[in-house]
Structures are given as C-alpha cells and as structure tokens.
Amino acid sequence: MLTQIETKGASGRDVAKSHRRETAQLLIFNFLLILTLLTIWLFKHRRVRFLHETGGAMFYGLIMGLILRYTIPSPDPENSIVHYCEDVTNSPGTLLLNVTDRLYEYEYKREIDKHNMNSRQGNEILRKVTFDSEIFFNVLLPPIIFYAGYSLKKRQFFRNLGSILTYAFIGTVISCIVISGIMYGFVMAMISLGQLGKHDFYFTDCLFFGALISATDPVTVLAIFHELDVDPQLYTLLFGESVLNDAVAIVLTYSISIYSPEDNPDMFDAAAFFKSVGNFAWIFAGSFAMGSAYGIVTALLTKFTKLCEFPMLETGIFFLLSWSAFLSAEASGLTGIVAVLFCGITQAHYTYNNLSDEAKMRTKQLFEFMNFMAENFIFCYMGVAIFTYQNHIFNALFIFGAFVAIFVARACNIYPLSFLLNLRRKRKIPWNFQHMMMFSGLRGAIAFALAIRDTDSKPKQMMFTTTLLIVFFTVWVFGGGTTQMLMWLHISLGLKGRHQLCRHVPHVPFGSP
Predict the structure, then answer these.
(1) Distance (Å, rounded) from C-alpha 492 to C-alpha 111?
(2) To pair with 346 at 20 to 30 A between CA atoms, which of 101, 206, 267, 418?
(3) Backbone dihedral region of 332: left (phi > 0), alpha (psi from -120 to 50 degrees) or beta?
C-alpha cells in the first residue's frame, strides 16, 4: 500500500512548505522548554516540592498535545489517496515510482492499518511533531547517560560498588522475570476474554516489556535528594543502581529482541535462550571495553600533551572522543549507551584531573547543560505524545497488570537483595532506606526511549502506551511525594535540608545526621 505522503522529488514550493512546518514544530518545543524553565525557576524560588520540574515539563507537553490534537482540522482527503501496486511483492525500504515519465522516490515510514487509516494517519502537523525514535536513542540519550557517569561521586560509588552491582544486574534480571511472568498471566486472561487473539501476544513480547520497563530513572527523586542533602549512602545506592540499571535494561532488551524460537514463539527454546545470554554478555562486555578504552585514550592524550595550554581545544577533544565512544560502539554492533556510560565513568576517574581548570569547568557545565536540556525535552515530548502519537493502543487490563507487575517486581528486587547484602555488609542497609528505594523506582526517559523505538506491531504499540502512562504516574505521584516520604520514614538529612523543610513544615521529626 502506497500513499501520497513525503516524496523526495518534491517541488521548490513543497520544500519551502515542509521547511516551514518543521520550523513550526521546533518552535512549539522551544516555547515548551522556555515555559518549563520559567516554571522551574518559580518552583525553586517558592521551594515547591509537590510537583517536580520533570512533572511540570510533562504537564505542559500534555496541554500542548491536547491543543494540537483537538484544534487542528482533519486531514485533506486529497493527501490520503491510496494507490495499489500489484507488481510490488515485498516491502522495499525505498520504492522508485514512474508517474507519467517522471521518476519519484518514496521511502518506507511505517505500516498503516487500512481499516482505520484516517485515525492512524492523522494530519500533517500531528505527523510532524512525532519525532523519529532514533533521535531519542542516538541524540538525546547519550548526553544524559554520559553525564550520569561523569558526575559520579567516586568515593561513595566504589565504596558501595558490590551492592550497586547486585541491585543493577541481579535486581534488573529479577525485575524482568517477575514482570514478564505477571504480564503473561494478564495476557492469557485477555486472550480468554477475547481482547487479544491467540497469536497477537507471545511470551517473548512479555519478556521484552519486562526488560524495557525495568529501566528505572529516578531523576526527580535524586534531584530532591541533592537539594535536601539526604544521607550519602542512600543517595549513592539509588544513583548507582539507576545508572547501571539503565545500561543493563538496554542490553537486556536488545538480547530479548533477538531471542526467536524457531517453531513456536510462545515456547521456551534452550538454544535461542543461551544464544541470547551469550549476546548479552558479549554486547555488555564489548561496550564496556570500548567505552573504557576511549576514556583511557583521552586520559593519556590530556596527560602527555600540552593541550591544557589551549582549553577550548582541550574541551573539544574531550567532547569528540567521548562522542566517538558512542558512535564506535553503534558502528560495531554493540550498544553506544553502555559504551558512553563507562566512558563517562572512566573520564571522571582518570581524565578529569588532567584537564586545565578552565576545561574542568567547561566540561562539567557543558554536559550538565546538555543533560538538563535533553531530559526536559524528552519529558515535554512525552506529554505531547500522549495525544499526538499515531500508534496508541489503550487496554485497561494490560495497563492495570503492568502497574501491579512493576510494584511486585520492585519489591522482589529491593527487599530480598537487601537482606542478602546485609549478611555481609558492615554498614547495613536499614529498613527505611529499603522502603525509600522501593518508593523511588520511577520510570522515565530510558523506558520511554526503548518503548518508542519499535511500535510497528500491536504488542509494541500496547507496550508504548502503557509505558507512557506508567512514566506519568510514577513521576507525578512518587516524584511529587518524595519529600513527604522522606519525612514519614525519618530519613536523615543534612543541615541544609532540615533548614529548607523546617521553613515550611515546623516541628518535623528527622533522623540523626
């Protein structure tokens, strides 16, 4: 099926019109970000904590998506003419079409449901505000992940490294298995109720959803922890777990996506399983090695040359080599996100001290700014996408099952692993820390980016919609309730945190510092 949408042989007028649309699209998000930044300033000035800046960004995006969805007129039927090509027997990525001796080049974008074409196609503006999913994965996520590694507090991180690795690796795998098992039960119930066909949703799809939704992103909680000067052990455990958990979830998602039992996708295939496990180990180890290698090369280059005499060049080399870690991993069939994470950790540990004072300040500020803008852009886009994205499937039973699954999986992750870790730790992880870590299992940019990357099939569309709703709920409800939970659990705060809260909530009992 071929529609008259997006040709490469467009006239000059069409090119100018398309340019104006794309500029208007960027202007919309630019205004959203400006509004978000002003709201962040207001929140910080008024010390508002019931709604964090990320929740505000999502709220503004939601309003903009609502306006775009219900105020823009329906598409012109002339732009939706369907032409049938009987000679085309497969689905080529690029199609050359001869129309009255003029050759046009069409590119594959996505499959459209022919029984519901108008609702899937939407209008031109709605299609234009829907970004290519690769933009999120290849442009917006790398600076977020790199900054997470580059801003690590090394002493606390390596002091709690064993616990962090346990939560990040074993905990993420436990979470994936528990979520996929619970969701498979709900999928079977949906099939028995006639909401799904028997061959619409397989156990491998449940595993895929379990892996992507296991990516925690407690950016809201950690920002409040930093402002209130929360106990450094709790902050380090949560931050370290979330950083490495993202990497594990990304590689796990990719490994499951290539798990393909030959005879029946719903049955366990030992050969395919062990192949996926091998791919997971190879991709993670290879990405780790490549990212670390780039970090070491940068450290040697800054140590044994006199780049420090030219801070601008020094900063440029630092940035480009860090970005090269991501690009090299992607070009090698590995995962750039994992490579850039460990490149950031290595750069912070070895390269940072070799930089000039000016370059130290510039690199910190550069990656902090890129992280801040990319994160807020993604959260704004999430709000817009709830109304403008073309591939939503809302299923109440699946959504309810997903919420149950993530809470049960988080509990199965935190409490048993904390018990085992406390058997050997000198400084135990107390119950109130465990409850706070359970409460802080928010979902955010990583889960969203993994879900939006593939929405071509019905299961993936259902997963994307559910992931978006989970992100909204956890950021607004759990992120907004972080301060109250800290007070209720008597988590120890520094003097700065006590002073800030006591100005608004007198006679609040706190734990000892």
Answers:
(1) 54
(2) 418
(3) alpha
CA distance 163 to 157: 10
User: Would you mind telling me the total number of residues written for the chain in this entry?
Assistant: 513
What is d(CA 8, CA 23) in angstroms, rounded to the nearest whole number? 19
| Contact between residue 238 and residue 440 where contact means Cβ atoms under 8 Å apart | yes
Q: What is the pTM of this model?
A: 0.80
- N- to C-terminal Cα separation, the chain: 66
Tokens of 279: 């791919």
CB 219 within 8 A of CB 482: no
How far apart (Å, rounded) are the C-alpha atoms in residues 475 and 477? 6
**Contact assessment for residue 443 and residue 470, using Cβ atoms and an 8 Å cutoff:** yes
Distance CA 486, CA 223 (A): 13
Token pair of 478 as six digits: 């759990």
Eight-state DSSP code of residue 75: P
Helix (H) or strand (E) holding 48: none
Give CA separation, 447 vs 206, 221, 253, in Å: 15, 17, 10
Of residues 410, 460, 373, the one with CA closest to residue 147: 373
- Band of the pLDDT at 191, cuts 50, 70, 90? confident
Q: Residue 415 burial (CB < 10 Å; 0-12/13-18/19+)?
A: middle
Q: Token match 């002003």: residue?
A: 38
- Report the pLDDT averaged over residues 141-169: 87
Distance between CA atoms of residues 61 and 76, nearest Å: 26
Q: Which of 75, 503, 143 is nearest to 341 (CA)?
A: 143
Q: Is residue 327 pLDDT above 50, yes or no?
A: yes
87 phi and psi angles, rounded to 5 deg:
-80, -15
